[in-house]
C-alpha cells in the first residue's frame, strides 16, 4: 500500500507539493493534466514535465486521476474511434513515462454530484452533502451553474467549463443511451485499450458512480458489487480493475463496503477511503474519516484491503473544510492529512497484529 494525496497541479490546487511532502507517510501524488480537455492526447513532454515537478518535491506520481473519457465513447457514436485512438496514444505516452495506474469514470454528463458544497456541521466544519429532493426539483443546467458558483473559484473535477457549455446538447445525445448500451460501450472501450495497457502494465481503475443511482435520469452502471463484478467478467483481464471508493459505493447504505473489496481480490487497483453520515435514503453528508464520526466502519474497510493483499495507492478522499482553510470543496490540506494519518494508523495496527500472530504460530 502506498499512501498518496490527490493533487490537481500548481495552477489549480490550493495545496502545494511541499506541504504534501510534510505529511508523514505520504510518498506520492495522484494527479492529472487538469487543463487538457477530455478526448485530447496528452503530450509526452507535458507528462515528463509534471513528473519532474513532482520528483523535485521529493514525491512521485503514483497514478493519474483522471484521464477523462470523451462523451462520444460513452454514447457509442461513430466519432468514438478517433477519441479511443487518442486515449490509446495518451496511455502509450503515460506507459513510456512509467506511469501505470489510471483512474477514470464512465458516468454520463455529470461526474460526482453533491447538492451542498459547504454544509455546516455542529463543530463549525463544512462538508459536501447530498439531498435527492434537491436534485428532483432542479433542472440540470441550473444545478451545474450553482455547483460552479459555490466552488470557491476553483474548477472542480468533473465540472469542467467545457462540459458546462453543452449540458443541454449532452442530455440530448444521451437520450437513446440506456444502461445496457452504456455498459456495452464501456466493454468496447476496454477491449480497444487492452493492448496498450498490457504492453506497459497499465492498470485501469474505474471509479464507481457517485451517488450510486441514476441522477437526472441518466443511466449509471457502476453502483454495486454485482455491477462491478459483471464488468470484471466482461473484460476478464487484470488490467481491468476498480478504484474502490468508499464514499461512492457507500452513498447507497445497502452496499457492503468490505464485501465489495473482498469480492475482487487482485482487481482493486486504487482506493479512495472516506466516511459519510447517512440521515435517510438519498440524504447524506460527508464526515471526518474517523469511524465514530460517520456511518462506515473504517477499520473494517482498511482490514478488507489489508487482508486481500491490496498493494496499490490509497488516498484519503474528500475532507471537511476546517481551521479556516479555503480550497476546492473537499480537497483542502488539513482534513485530508488527518485522514491519511488515521488510515496509516489503522494499517500499521493491522500489519503489526498480523506479524505478531505469524511469529507466535511459527
Ligand atoms: C470526486 C472524485 C471524482 C473522480 C472521478 C474519476 O471527488 O472522486 O471526480 O475523480 O470520477 O474519474
Note the run of SSEs as H and E.
EHEHEHHEEEHHHHHEHEHHEEEHEH
Discrete helix count: 14
Low-confidence stretches: none
Instruction: Give me the count of strands.
Output: 12
Q: What is the SS-derived class?
A: alpha/beta
Give the CA-CA distance, first to last residue: 25 Å
Helix content range: 40-55%
Give the integer mean of the pLDDT values: 96
* Principal-axis shape: globular
CATH superfamily, called what?
Divalent-metal-dependent TIM barrel enzymes
Q: What's the arrangement of strands in the largest beta sheet?
A: 1-2-3-4-7-8-9-12
Number of domains: 1
Largest sheet, strands/sense/barrel:
8 strands, parallel, barrel
Query: What is the CATH level 1 assignment?
Result: Alpha Beta
- The whole-angstrom Rg is 19 Å
Strand content: 15-25%
| Molecules bound to protein | D-mannose
Question: Any descriptors?
Answer:
alpha/beta; 14 helices; 362 residues; four-stranded antiparallel beta sheet; 40% helix; eight-stranded parallel beta barrel; TIM Barrel; 12 strands
Report on the architecture of this protein.
With 362 residues, this protein is of the alpha/beta class. The protein has one domain: Alpha-Beta Barrel (TIM Barrel), CATH 3.20.20.150. 40% of the residues lie in helices and 17% in strands. It contains 14 helices and twelve strands. It has helices at 17-21, 44-56, 71-75, 80-96, 132-136, 140-149, 161-164, 167-173, 179-200, 225-234, 246-249, 257-262, 298-307, 334-361; strands at residues 2-6, 26-31, 60-65, 101-105, 116-120, 126-131, 203-207, 240-245, 268-273, 276-280, 283-286, 313-316. The strands form two sheets. An eight-stranded parallel beta barrel has the order 1-2-3-4-7-8-9-12, surrounded by four helices. Strand 10 and strand 11 (283-286) form a beta hairpin. Helix 4 (80-96) runs parallel beside helix 9 (179-200) and helix 13 (298-307) crosses helix 14 (334-361). The longest helix has 28 residues, at 334-361. It starts with a strand and ends with a helix. The mean pLDDT is 96. D-mannose is lined by residues 65-66, 103-105, 111-112, 157-158, 207, 272, 318, 330.
Amino acid at each position: 500500500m502506498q499512501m498518496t494525496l490527490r493533487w490537481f497541479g500548481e495552477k489549480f490546487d490550493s495545496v502545494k507539493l511541499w506541504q504534501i511532502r510534510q505529511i508523514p507517510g505520504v510518498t506520492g501524488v495522484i494527479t492529472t493534466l487538469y487543463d487538457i480537455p477530455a478526448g485530447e492526447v496528452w503530450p509526452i513532454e507535458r507528462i515528463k514535465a509534471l513528473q519532474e515537478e513532482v520528483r523535485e518535491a521529493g514525491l512521485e506520481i503514483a497514478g493519474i486521476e483522471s484521464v477523462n473519457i470523451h462523451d462520444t465513447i460513452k454514447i457509442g457514436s461513430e466519432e468514438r474511434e478517433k477519441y479511443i485512438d487518442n486515449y490509446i496514444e495518451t496511455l502509450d505516452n503515460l506507459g513510456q513515462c512509467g506511469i501505470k495506474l489510471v483512474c477514470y469514470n464512465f458516468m454520463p454528463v455529470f461526474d460526482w454530484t453533491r447538492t451542498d458544497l459547504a454544509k455546516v456541521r455542529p463543530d463549525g466544519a463544512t462538508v459536501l452533502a447530498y439531498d435527492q429532493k434537491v436534485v428532483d426539483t432542479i433542472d440540470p443546467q441550473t444545478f451545474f451553474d450553482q455547483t460552479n458558483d459555490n466552488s470557491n473559484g476553483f474548477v472542480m473535477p468533473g465540472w469542467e467549463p467545457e462540459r458546462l457549455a453543452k449540458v443541454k446538447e449532452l442530455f440530448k445525445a444521451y437520450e437513446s443511451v440506456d444502461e445496457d448500451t452504456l455498459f456495452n460501450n464501456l466493454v468496447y472501450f476496454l477491449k480497444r485499450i487492452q493492448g496498450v495497457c498490457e504492453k506497459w502494465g497499465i492498470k485501469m481503475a474505474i471509479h464507481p458512480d457517485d451517488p450510486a443511482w441514476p441522477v437526472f435520469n441518466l443511466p449509471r452502471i457502476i453502483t454495486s458489487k454485482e455491477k462491478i463484478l459483471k464488468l470484471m467478467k466482461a473484460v476478464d483481464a487484470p488490467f481491468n480493475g476498480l478504484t474502490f471508493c468508499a464514499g461512492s459505493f457507500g452513498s447507497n447504505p445497502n452496499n457492503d463496503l468490505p464485501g465489495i473489496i473482498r469480492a475482487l481480490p487482485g482487481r482493486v487497483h486504487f482506493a479512495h477511503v472516506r466516511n459519510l453520515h447517512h440521515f435517510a435514503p438519498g440524504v447524506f453528508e460527508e464526515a471526518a474519516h474517523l469511524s465514530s464520526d460517520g456511518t462506515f466502519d473504517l477499520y473494517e474497510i482498511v482490514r478488507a484491503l489489508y487482508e486481500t493483499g491490496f498493494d496499490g495507492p490509497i488516498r484519503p478522499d474528500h475532507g471537511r473544510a476546517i481551521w479556516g482553510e479555503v480550497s476546492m470543496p473537499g480537497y483542502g490540506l488539513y482534513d485530508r492529512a488527518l485522514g491519511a494519518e488515521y488510515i496509516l494508523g489503522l494499517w500499521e495496527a493491522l500489519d503489526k497484529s498480523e506479524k505478531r500472530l505469524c511469529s507466535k504460530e511459527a
